[in-house]
Amino acid sequence: MLLKNTSTHFGHISVLIHWLVALAVYGMFALGLWMVTLSYYDTWYHRAPELHKSIGICLFIVMVIRVIWLFISPPPKALASYSPLTRIGSKLMHHTLYIVLFGILASGYLISTAEGDPISIFGWFEVPATLTAQGIQADTAGVIHLYLAWIVVVLSLLHGLAAFKHHFIDHDLTLKRMFGFNSDEK
Ligand code: HEM
Ligand code: HEM
Description:
CATH architecture: Up-down Bundle
Helix content: 55-70%
Distance between the termini: 18 Å
Number of helices: 5
Largest sheet: 2 strands, antiparallel
Strand order of the largest sheet: 1-2
Number of strands: 2
Order of helices and strands: HHHEEHH
Radius of gyration: 19 Å
Bound molecules: protoporphyrin IX containing FE
Number of domains: 1
Shape: elongated
Structural class: mainly alpha
């Protein structure tokens, strides 16, 4: 088992975190859209947002670990077959995905703590409120949260489509590498 990335290879930690985060983001998107349609008398009215917030804070912790891991174990080199445009475009996309994701997590935190209430994570521990501006904080953060959620979903689907293009049209190892295959394993 290869934990760290090499110059040709995504290690298992990067692979695991990548797919775990992707799964969590799509799940959170669906959960978020569904929970805001619930009525007060629905059994999930309180439970769904609690779940959304708890998973969201866990996702934040995973994303911080992911960024630290980027420095400990940098990603493999771009494949030799990539054009300069592909190299720049993919880097730009990866950075944008990171930034937008942190924006979603921060705005989610600001909605949840706008009234000064802490966030309970599955009842295990609490994250305290810090910024609690009076008035429009929850509404403003809510609009930003929704837009950023759509942006991350659309961009990541385009990013996924690009990976499929590499796999099915260019027949290169881009997608296989994100499942832990080595550059010289075809
Ligand atoms: C990748 C992570 C996340 C995604 C994709 C996501 C997505 C969404 C979506 C699509 C909505 C529905 C918004 C609407 O229709 O108005 C929503 C609502 C909400 N999210 Fe998230 N969310 C994420 C993380 C978080 C985090 C970390 C928190 C808090 C710690 C959070 C707190 C909330 C709250 C409180 C609402 C309800 C807002 C309202 O009542 O208008 N979310 N989220
Ligand atoms: C919300 C969903 C997603 C996010 C946030 C995301 C984010 C990222 C990021 C930041 C990287 C750069 C490597 C790293 O830092 O770990 C990456 C690489 C990659 N992702 Fe995603 N991704 C998502 C969904 C997908 C999907 C759905 C696919 C394919 C079906 C995919 C395929 C890949 C591949 C093949 C790479 C390696 C690219 C390369 O070697 O340059 N990702 N992804």
